[in-house]
Amino acid sequence: MAESGGASRLELATLEREVTSCRACPRLVEWRERVAREKRAAYRDWEYWGRPVPGFGDPGARVVVFGLAPAAHGANRTGRFFTGDRSGDFLFAGLHRTGFSDKAVSRTIEDNVRLSGLWISAAVRCAPPQNKPTPTERDACLPYAAREIEILQANVVVCLGAFAWDAALRLRNVRPKPKFGHGAEARAGDLTLVGCYHPSQQNTFTGVLTPPMLDAVLLRARDLAGLNRPEAGHPVR
């Protein structure tokens, strides 16, 4: 699950078991399991995860990277968020440059990636059809994120996209809702939210999100969380 002290490992392990056994949303259960059975041709030799995906990272994390949901052939295949797909390649390169990850790539759950000061999670834990969870599915899943943040005692949430931003605001019932934007910041009770365009191929291939833009948000998150910035050329070891 994770790397260094801080939060209760027992509580996180209990939450992980609850997440991975969840079958609350019939549409998501049917889809994630069908994708795992049928597979993509490039991954026909893989045994897909095909279950809800738990968060992972440093139990002492002050920063949470909050995504939308697992990718059908990414985390739904590998069992770890942003692992084994192009979005993950882009994100982990940025996490490495900004001192949050000891590796610049995350391809499988066995690659021993170590995060420092950071936890990765998502608003919805199952891969949804067309990558679009329903409001009901989001609301069924958000209690997991609420418990996760409480256990971690994190105080900064980097929201990858408008869906994650809206979901994070719902965790603290913020009204009126601040508008999402890249680099936007908002207070949500005890949390500071920072907006970031999602590292989808649609955004990264078109230049909507560039590596410097991602790095700026991640470094700002470090500042807000009171974490020292890494020295140039010396990412986490």
Layout of secondary structure:
Layout: H1 9-20, H2 26-38, E1 56-57, E2 63-67, H3 75-78, H4 86-97, E3 118-122, H5 135-152, E4 156-160, H6 162-171, E5 185-188, E6 191-196, H7 201-204, H8 211-225
Parallel strand pairs: 2-3, 2-4, 4-6
Antiparallel strand pairs: 1-3, 5-6
What features would you describe in this structure?
With 237 residues, this protein is α/β, with parallel strands linked by helices. It has a single domain (9-225), classed as Uracil-DNA Glycosylase, subunit E, CATH 3.40.470.10. It is built from 8 helices and 6 strands. Strands 1-3-2-4-6-5 form a 6-stranded mixed β-sheet, with helices on both faces. The longest helix is centred in the middle third of the chain and has 18 residues, at 135-152.
Query: Which CATH first-tier class would you pick?
Result: Alpha Beta
Portion in helices? 25-40%
By DSSP (H or I, 4+ residues per run), the number of helices equals: 8
* Count of spatially separate domains: 1
Query: Which word captures the global form?
Result: globular
H and E order: HHEEHHEHEHEEHH
- CATH topological fold name: Uracil-DNA Glycosylase, subunit E
Family: Belongs to the uracil-DNA glycosylase (UDG) superfamily. Type 5 (UDGb) family.
InterPro entries: UDG_Type-4/5, UdgB-like, Uracil-DNA_glycosylase-like, Uracil-DNA_glycosylase-like_sf
Keywords: 4Fe-4S, DNA damage, DNA repair, Hydrolase, Iron, Iron-sulfur, Metal-binding
Protein name: Type-5 uracil-DNA glycosylase
